[in-house]
Every structure is written in structure tokens, then in C-alpha cells.
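PROTEIN–LIGAND DATA SHEET

This sheet pairs a single protein chain with one bound small molecule, zinc ion, given as SMILES. Inputs appear in the order they were entered. The predicted three-dimensional arrangement of chain and ligand is reported afterwards as a C-alpha cell string under its own label.
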Amino acid sequence: MELLTRKCLLALGFCVVMLSVFPSLMNGAESHQVTQRVRPMVSRDEPLGRIFPPETAGTTNSAARVKRPFTVTKAMWGGQESSGPLRHHRPLRITLHHEGSPKPLTPSEDPKQLLRNLQSWGFRAKGWPDIPYHFLIDLEGNIYEARDLWAVGDTNTQYDPTGHLLVTLMGNYELQTPTLRQLESLCDFLAWLCDYYNIDPSTIACHREFVLTACPGKYFAPYVLSGYVEAEVRKRIRAAYSTGQAK
Ligand SMILES: [Zn+2]
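PREDICTION REPORTED AS:
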């Protein structure tokens, strides 16, 4: 009897460990559902000056107040048009990735060339119609436009990216740490995306929260999982609405 109880406790302990190590086991099949993940650094009670009704998610907000950061267009980085049919979706949530390059990205590399390489590799090796992500950010914090935001992204892993806006840090954050400029630029950009496309900031999540993957890397993921990114995004939205700053 005692042995049985001990076995049960061990099994229970194992489940708890599995669920805490692999939260994706709990959240696997909910790509459309907005979940309120616990983010220790976020206080969601503080008013933002605007609300995010779920039915408006993925529609444009003509009264947006967060200033749109400058983005480098496809034409500016020398990208090609999409090479195949794209599937249309409404962007309902934001999912963060890293590019996962084999080596850490260094300032000596040309981000525009890397984007052109990524796009042609996707065409050639994966049969993807375009870069799998919607936006990418380099070490200097420059933001590059990639796949059209109204088209579903692509993934090497088993989760459905429909409804996800895929924003990616260029480089490998298993091997390097994000730069301050990158993080600032990411938060500025996400604040604008949330405000303009009516995407609730509490949807900001990591790729690894949907499927078993290291993405977006152990040196970047904690900024998201702790709630640092969401808190910074909320701060920016609140500031734009409290000062009455127009775009
Ligand atoms: Zn990823």
C-alpha cells in the first residue's frame, strides 16, 4: 500500500516536472485562442488608455496612437516577390522567434545579404513561397519587412502558425545575447503592431510555448517568459494614449 502511494506520488511529481519543463504539452492545440499566460513582470490591471476587444483583433485601427517605427521594405533589402500561393489569415497574436543561424551573428555581416540568402534557401530547400517570418530585426535594431503580414508564415516545427504574426531576431540566441538596441526596437515595433492591428499585448509569446523547440533561444526567451517584453509594450501603449501623442 505504502509502495503504491509512493509510486503514485512519483508519477504525479513526474507529470508536474514535465508540464513545467514543456509548457507546450498544455498549450499545444490552441493557436487561435488567446491565453493569459502568467508573466511575473507584467501587471495587466493597469489601464492602457485603450482596450483590445477580441473581435477587433487583426483589423486595422485608424485611430492608432503609437508611432510606427521605420521598417526596411523588401525592395530596400533586395528581396524577391513571393514565389507561390500564400494563405490569407488575420494576425491575432504575436509569436517571437530567433533565426537560429549556425553561428552567432556578428556586426560585420550584412543583414540584407543574410535576408536574401534566407529567402532563396526557403524557395530552394523548403519550397516556401517566401521568408517564413513576417518581420526580422538585426543587431542594430533595424526592422526588415519579409512575408506579407496578411499571409500565414511557415515553420520547421509542428505547430499551426495561422493567426500568428512572426517576429524574429536575426542571429542565434542559444549562442549570443540580444543587444539593447534590438530589444528596444523590438518593443517599439511590437507596441505599434499591437496598437495598429488591435492585437492584445498579452498574446506576445515565444515559439517554444507552442511546440518543443529551443527557439527563440535561451538568452532571448527569458525576456519574453518573464514578461519584460510585454511590460515594455504596455508601457509604450500607455504613454502614447496618456499624452495624447498623435501618430
Ligand atoms: Zn521559432
